[in-house]
Each structure stands twice: as C-alpha cells, then as structure tokens.
Amino acid sequence: MEVTSNSCVWTIPPHFGLWIPARIPHEIHMPERVSMRTLYLRPSLTRLVPACTVLHIGSLLRELIFEIVRVGQLRNRNRIERALRDLLVAELLRATPVPAVVVLPKDPRAVAVAQNVTSDPAMHNSLQSLCATAGLSVRTLQRLFLREVGGDFACWRRRSG
Asked: What is the structure's pLDDT at 75?
C-alpha cells in the first residue's frame, strides 16, 4: 500500500500503520489486495507528531485495533470503551516509528521520472531512458533532485524501491 501526501510517498508494509494527523489531505494506492483498518481520533486525544509517520504495529496494538473496529464508535460515557480508547492512545505513543518516507521533487519533469520509478520498482530502465521519456537531461534531473529532494537520484531510487 502506498500513501501520498504533499510531496511525500510512504510505502506501508504488512504489520505497519501510518499515522496521519487530522485534516492532512492524502491519497491511498493499493496495487495489490490489501486488508486495512482506519481509525479516526480527535486531535485533542493524542500528542503524536503533527506529521505523517509510519509505525510498527505490535500484536497488542493490532488486536486492539481489531476490537475497536468491531465495537465501532467509542463513547466517552462507557467505561470499557473509554479504556479501549485510552489504551489505543497509549499504544500509539509507544509504537516504534519507522523511516519509510520518500520525498518527491516538485518539478513536473522530475516528478514524472520519480513516478515512473515508484510505479514499478522492479523496472531497471536506464537513467538516460527515464530522463528522455520525461523530456530532460540526466544532468538537469540530478540538479533538480539535489535541490528539491536533498540528495542524488541514485540514492533516492534505492530508498524508494
């Protein structure tokens, strides 16, 4: 599963989850069959970072998510449901963050090359071929990646695959 927000892409492997703060626009792409659960929390309930973060989902947190989805809305006046919510928040705060973000460049030509690579990581087209398809030179692509992503294309390509 891939999630895109602003100029970042996260690839979410099994047994991991993505924390997305409230009101952050995002898109989800599932190239294969995926089973996922979505929970919505009031922003006032958590002190998690105000940025999207991939989290390792341990067995307790996983089962807790299943139970909360089964219950549905957690009402504050129900003692058990409030305990489930409080335990969820505690487990989310305890979950281990995992660096899994790939930053996309802003230039449309460099984005075309990046999307070409991320859409099929097994593809081994040459850099020259990728650049020709997007209508820019290898040197221009390298300059764009250094300026907009903060590193060279080869390193970015290894991280994104």
From this structure: 92
| Nearest-angstrom CA–CA distance, 88 and 80 | 12
Kindly state the helix (H) or strand (E) to which residue 110 belongs, with its residue range: helix 108-119
Ordered domains of the chain (ranges, CATH): 2-98 (no CATH), 105-160 (1.10.10.60)
The answer to whether the CB of 56 falls within 8 A of the CB of 96 is: yes
With the CA atoms of 101, 27, 109 and 98 taken in that order, what torsion angle do they form, in degrees rounded to the nearest 10?
0
What pLDDT, in 10s, does the model give residues 3-57?
Answer: 888 878 888 888 889 999 888 899 998 878 888 999 998 888 877 777 888 899 9
Nearest to 148 by CA among 24, 52, 27, 7: 7
Nearest-angstrom CA–CA distance, 105 and 119:
15
Instruction: Select from 4, 5, 21, 16 the least CA-distant residue to 98.
Output: 16
Task: Using the CB atoms, write b or e for 88-123: b if 16+ within 10 Å.
Answer: beebbeebeebebbbbbbebebbbbbbeebbeeeee
Which amino acid, residue 156? W
The verdict on pTM exceeding 0.90 is: no
